[in-house]
Amino acid sequence: MRVPHGIDSKAFSAAVRELEGIVGQQWVFTSEEDLYLYRDAYSPFWGEPEERLASAAVSPESVEQVQAILRIANAHKIPIYPISTGRNLGYGGAAPVYSGSVVLDLKRMNRILEIDEQAASCLVEPGVSYFDLYRHIRANKLKLWIDCPDPGWGSLVGNALDHGNGYTMNPFRDHFGAHCGMEVVLANGDLVRTGMGALPGAKTWQQSRYGFGPDVDGIFSQGNSGVVTKMGFWLMAEPEAYLAGTVMVSRHADLVPLMKAFSVLNNTNAMMATTRIGSPLQLGRVFGVPPEPEHAALLDKPGVTPDELEAYGRKNDLPYWTIDLKFYGGTEVVEAQWTYAMRVFKSAIPDVQFTKGDRLTFPLTDAQAEAVQDKASLGIPSLGAFFVGARSPNKPVGSHGHFWLSPILPLSAEAVLEAQKVFAGAFREWGVAPLYRALPQLYSPRAFYLLFGFEVSEDPAVNHKTRETVRRMIKLAAEHGWGEYRTAPAFMDDVMNVYSYNNHALRGLHERIKDALDPNGILAAGRCGIWPKHLRNGRS
Ligand SMILES: Cc1cc2nc3c(=O)[nH]c(=O)nc-3n(C[C@H](O)[C@H](O)[C@H](O)COP(=O)(O)OP(=O)(O)OC[C@H]3O[C@@H](n4cnc5c(N)ncnc54)[C@H](O)[C@@H]3O)c2cc1C
User: How many helices (H) and strands (E) does the chain have?
Assistant: First the structure.
């Protein structure tokens, strides 16, 4: 049996028996075979000594069992790592940040506790997946939509607690931002409800966010002071119609007026959906269909200029930049929004072009929902995103997984162009493959996430080089004022280290909260670079 670092194997066996007494023997996992499921299949340390591994896993079915488990963990000083559905691929999977922790797997707590159609809200347990909630809504013909990330098998709670994002409109697409009220078991086993939930018999726990007093919910997101056992969310009322369209411009310099016009639409909430800046001319081989040979040769040419790409674009009818727009609402309203958007772009760039995409009315039949290409934009969960890195005619050898790095940039053309230049220069200098064609994604309503994807290899030497590149990128981004929003456990300390204003005052605050709420340091040690006292490597 694996044993957590610093724990005597007899003491650990005794703790395991106590855990079995709480949840039943069949819900405590210690065999290599069972624990394989708690490895991070996308770990950038795959098969290396630094890979983060669980010593055991325990799966409760009630809040009382969670409380009892944490009390046992405190008594024996056993490190615990909570997961909801543990599908956090790309950001750590189901594996703990601190190797040797016992994974607290909350998948069995999977009840949809409340769903209010008129208020468009719900209360769920951690094991409720996007598929579960979607199927429940459809089975009961409720006029509600969920907002899901690309893979629909994850949980509302786990995704929101890691600041995950989806693809419908504000405020639903920021999953933590769309939550309303929590129930949390603190590290010592105490039970707390936040917001209106602190009022016994509250009638608006899932509708009114703040309750009374300081808003503490944030410390449990990307934090490690509590286990969230219930969480409320706002859902989107099913709109009458949906209209999608694409804006296309042909010149490199068009990005400046394009972004200015887009900002007007975005900042007046005339366009509230997630979107991305695309560049059919610049897109290389990151995760898509490879360009045709002449285009590929141009992209591979060192120092290729925007003029050369523009000339290729003119010849082949390829736009330099694109932005997808999506509108949700009344049938006349989405048409009017599209007309208005076209006017705003035309006044900024007279030769701008548009294509109109999907135009749908709701509800969709099952067959129509199945046929939708861009499912996530309509809150339809799927696993289609796993095409990323998969084996295909263009990619005879599939990748061993991937992870992301997303420096966050201001919402402006100048910022995008500067970031492309900075990273392109760095990749040349470091001698690594040019990832600089990464393009910005609008998840936050006011900032771009510049999403870089890295493939995980079965070859430790390749992974070593990738990790070094990522670490350099984190520092380089920080030097330019661009921070990450989320990262894999391998890089959590690196990211927290660059949030260093006033001698790491924010990390100091997190550590004080950690010490107060989790004096034995048992819960999710190291999550987001927040370590308990005994693991701070000499820092007090
Ligand atoms: C191809 C691909 C595409 C992806 N696209 C997206 C995307 O569009 N958007 C997106 O957001 N993500 C995306 N991801 C990342 C990831 O798959 C999802 O975010 C997924 O929903 C996270 O898994 P989960 O919901 O099971 O969370 P979990 O793994 O359960 O939780 C994530 C972390 O939150 C903490 N946590 C979880 N539950 C609790 C709890 N109850 N109490 C305290 N702490 C807790 C833990 O530290 C845990 O490690 C993608 C991944 C892949 C592979």
Answer: 14, 20
pLDDT, tens digit, 9 for 90 and up, residues 254-272: 999 999 999 999 999 999 9
DSSP 239-301: PSEEEEEEEEE-SGGGHHHHHHHHHHHHHTTSS-B-EEEE-TTT--SSSSPPPPHHHHHHHHS
Question: Which tens digits make up the pLDDT trace of 226-239?
Answer: 999 999 999 999 99
Pocket probe mutation, ligand 1, options 69, 89, 443, max atoms within 8 Å of Cβ: 89
What is the distance between the alpha carbons of residues 94 and 184, in angstroms, rounded to a whole number?
Answer: 20
Q: Which residues line ligand 1 (CB under 6 A)?
A: 82-92, 106, 126, 149-151, 154-155, 157-159, 161-162, 164-165, 227-228, 385-386, 388, 524, 527
Cα distances (Å, whole numbers) of residue 93 to 38, 84, 86, 253: 8, 11, 6, 41
d(CA 22, CA 189): 14
On whether the CB atoms of residues 89 and 455 are closer than 8 A, the answer is no
Q: Which helix (H) or strand (E) holds 367?
A: helix 366-371
| CA atoms in the 13 A half-sphere facing the CB of 213 | 9
Pairing of β 179-186 and β 191-193: antiparallel
pTM strictly above 0.90: yes
Q: Is the distance from CB of 447 to CB of 484 less than 8 angstroms? A: no
Residue 242 annotated among the catalytic residues of the structure:
no
Torsion sign (Cα): 125, 129, 135, 137 = positive
pLDDT at 436 over 60: no
62 to 59, 68, 96, 102, 311: CA distances (angstroms): 9, 10, 21, 18, 63
The torsion angle over the Cα atoms of residues 447, 450, 456 and 459, rounded to 10 degrees, is -140
Q: How far is CA 6 from the centre of its chain?
A: 33
Task: Give the number of other Cβ atoms within 10 Å of residue 529's Cβ.
Answer: 22
Query: Which residues have a Cβ under 8 Å from the Cβ of 386 and sit 6 or more positions away?
Result: 151
Atom of ligand 1 nearest to the CA of 524: 47
Q: What is the mean pLDDT of the chain?
A: 94
Taking only the tens place, the pLDDT of each residue in 118-152 is: 999 999 999 999 999 999 999 999 999 999 999 99
DSSP string, 105-143: E-TT---EEEEETTTTEEEE-TT-BHHHHHHHHHHTT-S
State residue 539's pLDDT score.
Answer: 66
Q: Residue 158 C-alpha to ligand 1 middle, in angstroms? A: 5
Ligand 1 atom 13: the closest Cα is on which residue?
Answer: 149
The secondary structure of 503-527 as a DSSP string is: HHHHHHHHHHHHHHH-TT--BSTTG
Selecting among 81, 91, 134, 443, the annotated active-site residue is 91
Two tokens at 333?
Answer: 């309203």
What pLDDT, on the 0 to 100 scale, is given for residue 302? Answer: 80
The Cα angle at residue 279 between residues 294 and 146, in degrees rounded to 5:
135
CB crowding 87-99: b at 16 or more within 10 Å, else e: bbbbbbbbbbbbb
Non-local (6+) Cβ contacts of 230 within 8 A are 63, 113, 123, 124, 125, 182, 183
